[in-house]
């Protein structure tokens, strides 16, 4: 990874594997790459934010609050923007959601808070809650603001969070303000999980993710770079009173075709590579397999990295894709092509050029998806990017005695986040199978309360 332009957060290893503040440095992109990934939605300036905030009706029992998994008091923070109290606005957001900055950028607000806004029923455009949230938090952080949570001296009780993504960060912040000692373990060089490595750069820069990590670290949370293998797990079980599993999901599922050794990279690895500066261009012809939001991110990135043709191949119809409609619209604007009802069946390396053989698909009379006879066709391409869902980390999870899995997902008691092993709690993608950042944050908060209750501590309200 290129370390030249990393900003203020970098992970390297100390003797104990604990990562210090000055070792956390932001990934650095060349200026050329950075220019290719400008913000998808440019931030509001002060005047725009004020105008938009004044449109809000400050609804009683506002539906936008209920639509947010972390229940941010939306009318309250918007009203504070309208009155010029940006510090108060950011604090309202961050007290409910320590990752309020990244959620302001990456939340699918169209189907959450903004989707619930009463303005729709008045025939007016929904309040741009996401951009207002981003404006308030980024202004606050840019002016030197910190998380409005009290950092207390550590109690003797210690909690380990495994995985350094949004669920663990939220869980750790909640626990830390109650005085618990918290250590986050992750095998990767940079913390932040998919926020750092897996979200398209034009939505969330790695540097933005790492600034939020630093805020959590400033609460006194320890970060240790260590892969949690059976030996590490034994150490953790011995040294900590409770353990939170926020490990997310594993690698993308593999294509069920003969994969050429070269010219295939899974979507998350592709995205992580350009976000951390190790991949700076894409070849002319790129094919992405799958039609979820990650597939869209990869296909759009390929275009921005120089691909002439970036094509999404999906075995079902357009109305069956899992990507949000606004993501699809964005991809079309970026010039991504879509081949619906097409499935790859073989990949060949022909004199250095890849040939992806596909077949048309159609539902039979029983609604079962079947290949259409004699409908094979071939796509010549230079790079194939599978984006067909992440596999659960079953091997790792099976090392944990006493937890129960359901199709690879960790089974929890919903109100507490507790697993069937009473010392273990869990949240985020390893429980829900892969949802939004804001869902992971809500899970982490819930588990923190469950852990505190188990350890006999009643959670206190954040400090304003
Ligand atoms: Fe404002 Fe819309 Fe929420 Fe009402 S529903 S408080 S108008 S953002």
CATH superfamily of the largest domain: FAD/NAD(P)-binding domain
Structural class by helix and strand composition: alpha/beta
The helicity comes to 25-40%
Count of strand segments: 15
Structural topology:
Elements (H helix, E strand, L loop, with lengths): L30 H6 L9 H10 L7 H4 L7 H9 L3 H11 L3 H7 L6 H4 L12 H14 L15 E5 L3 H11 L4 E6 L7 H4 L8 H12 L4 E4 L4 H10 L2 E4 L21 H9 L9 E5 L3 H12 L4 E5 L11 H10 L2 E3 L2 E9 L2 E11 L5 E3 L5 E5 L1 E4 L7 H4 L7 E2 L2 E2 L13 E3 L2 H4 L4 H18 L10
Parallel strand pairs: 1-2, 1-4, 2-3, 4-15, 5-6, 5-12, 6-7
Antiparallel strand pairs: 8-9, 9-10, 9-11, 13-14
The structure holds iron/sulfur cluster.
Fold and architecture overview:
The chain is of the alpha/beta class. It folds into three domains: 3-32 and 147-250 and 391-454, FAD/NAD(P)-binding domain; 37-142, Orthogonal Bundle (Fumarate Reductase Iron-sulfur Protein, Chain B, domain 2), CATH 1.10.1060; 267-386, FAD/NAD(P)-binding domain (3-Layer(bba) Sandwich). The chain has helices at residues 31-36, 46-55, 63-66, 74-82, 86-96, 100-106, 113-116, 129-142, 166-176, 194-197, 206-217, 230-239, 267-275, 293-304, 325-334, 394-397, 429-432, 437-454; strands at residues 158-162, 181-186, 222-225, 242-245, 285-289, 309-313, 337-339, 342-350, 353-363, 369-371, 377-381, 383-386, 405-406, 409-410, 424-426. The strands form four sheets. A five-stranded parallel β-sheet has the order 3-2-1-4-15, sandwiched between helices. A four-stranded parallel β-sheet has the order 7-6-5-12, with helices on one face. The longest helix is centred in the C-terminal third of the chain and has 18 residues, at 437-454. The chain is globular, with a radius of gyration of 23 Å. Iron/sulfur cluster (SF4) binds at residues 56-59, 62-64, 74-75, 117-119, 127, 129.
């Amino acid at each position: 990874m290129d370390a030249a332009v990393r900003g203020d957060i970098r992970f390297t290893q100390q003797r104990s594997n604990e990562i210090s503040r000055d070792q956390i440095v932001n990934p650095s992109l060349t200026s050329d790459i950075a220019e290719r990934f400008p913000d998808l939605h440019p931030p509001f300036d002060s005047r725009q934010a004020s105008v938009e905030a004044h449109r809000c009706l400050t609804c009683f029992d506002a539906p936008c609050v209920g639509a947010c998994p972390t229940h941010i008091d939306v009318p309250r923070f918007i009203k504070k923007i309208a009155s010029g109290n940006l510090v108060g606005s950011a604090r309202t957001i961050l007290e409910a959601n320590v990752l309020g900055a990244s959620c302001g950028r990456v939340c699918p607000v169209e189907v959450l808070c903004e989707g619930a806004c009463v303005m729709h029923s008045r025939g007016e455009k929904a309040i741009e809650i996401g951009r207002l949230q981003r404006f308030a938090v980024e202004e606050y952080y840019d002016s030197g603001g910190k998380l409005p949570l009290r950092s207390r001296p550590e109690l003797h009780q210690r909690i380990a969070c495994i995985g350094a993504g949004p669920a663990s960060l939220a869980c750790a912040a909640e626990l830390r303000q109650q005085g618990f000692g918290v250590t986050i373990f992750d095998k990767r060089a940079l913390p932040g999980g998919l926020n750092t490595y897996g979200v398209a750069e034009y939505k969330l820069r790695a540097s933005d993710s790492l600034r939020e990590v630093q805020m959590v670290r400033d609460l006194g949370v320890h970060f240790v770079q260590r892969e949690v293998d059976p030996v590490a797990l034994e150490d953790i079980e011995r040294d900590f009173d409770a353990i939170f599993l926020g490990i997310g999901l594993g690698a993308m599922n593999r294509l069920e075709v003969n994969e050429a050794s070269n010219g295939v990279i899974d979507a998350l690895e592709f995205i992580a590579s350009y976000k951390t500066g190790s991949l700076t261009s894409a070849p002319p012809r790129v094919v992405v397999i799958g039609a979820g939001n990650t597939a869209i991110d990869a296909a759009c990135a390929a275009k921005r990295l120089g691909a002439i043709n970036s094509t999404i191949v999906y075995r079902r119809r357009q109305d069956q894709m899992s990507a949000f409609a606004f993501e699809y619209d964005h991809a079309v604007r970026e010039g991504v092509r879509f081949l619906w009802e097409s499935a790859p069946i073989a990949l060949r390396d022909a004199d250095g050029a890849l040939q992806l053989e596909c077949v048309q698909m159609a539902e039979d009379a029983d609604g079962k998806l079947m290949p259409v006879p004699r409908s094979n066709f071939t796509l010549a391409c230079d790079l194939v990017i599978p984006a067909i869902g992440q596999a659960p980390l079953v091997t790792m999870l099976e090392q944990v005695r006493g937890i129960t899995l359901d199709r690879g997902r960790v089974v929890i008691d919903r109100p507490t986040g507790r697993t069937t092993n009473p010392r273990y709690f869990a949240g985020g993608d390893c429980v829900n199978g892969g949802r939004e950042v804001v869902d992971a944050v809500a899970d982490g908060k819930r588990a923190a309360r469950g852990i505190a209750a188990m350890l006999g501590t009643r959670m206190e309200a954040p400090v304003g």
